[in-house]
From TrEMBL:
The keyword Repeat applies. It comes from Leptonychotes weddellii (Weddell seal). It comes from the Eukaryota. Keywords: Disulfide bond, Glycoprotein, Immunoglobulin domain, Repeat, Signal. This is Osteoclast-associated immunoglobulin-like receptor. Residues 21-94 form the Ig-like domain. One of its GO terms (cellular component) is plasma membrane. One of its GO terms (biological process) is immune response-regulating signaling pathway.
Amino acid sequence: PISSGSQESHGPSSPVFSVPPALYPKPRMGAQPAAIVTPGVNVTLRCQAPQPAWQFALFKSGEITSVLYRDVSMELAEFFLEEVTPAQGGSYHCCYWNPGWNLGVWSHPSDTLELLVTDQLPPPSLVALPGPVVAPDANVSLRCAGRLRGMSFALYRVGVAAPLQYRDSAEPWADFPLRGASAPGTYSCYYHTPSSPYVLSLRSEPLLISADGSGSLDYMQGNLVRLGLAGLVLISLGTLVVFDWRSQSCAPGSVSP
């Protein structure tokens, strides 16, 4: 259920019917404790006007008829959503009205606030930049990408219980740099809301980072070449020894066994 905390009434006219002039700036909208919560949490939607207002209106996208009003004589109005359900999630915006304005003229609407009510966030993707094969002397960055901004991200490595790295990000992704020599392994990541009540995502699909074998292959090929040359030298020396022995055996005055 939604309540305004004070008298609810129908405004002098619906804000959707009037186009306000530029001198009626839009309010700001926020949610406490957060815009992403689990079911059953009490949420307060706050509409903050940049100037004193007499009446505020709250709208939810797709439900034009369910408009709530609150009569106040200040810059802030609060709308209380008690024990929210997933059905109460959605896009909200608000506007305000001042009795000194013309009848039926409301402020510009606030920016949309997305309220998400869920037990679990969708899993992120995990990719390697520039790629999952890393040379020992190169670095790689693992990007954990979700769908929401302002989340906290954690990177895990298979076989290690604690998070390998942790990042807060204003973007819907976070980058985790790794050194090439120690990068090979299997990784996964997840993200969650940055403050309580925490809502966690599912884990990403595992990502395998492997070492570039070209360096060791070149070293092995070099060893094979060196061994081959050493073998040729030994064969040549052996041929010279045999040739010298035969020469001495066939020389005049040599004694046959």
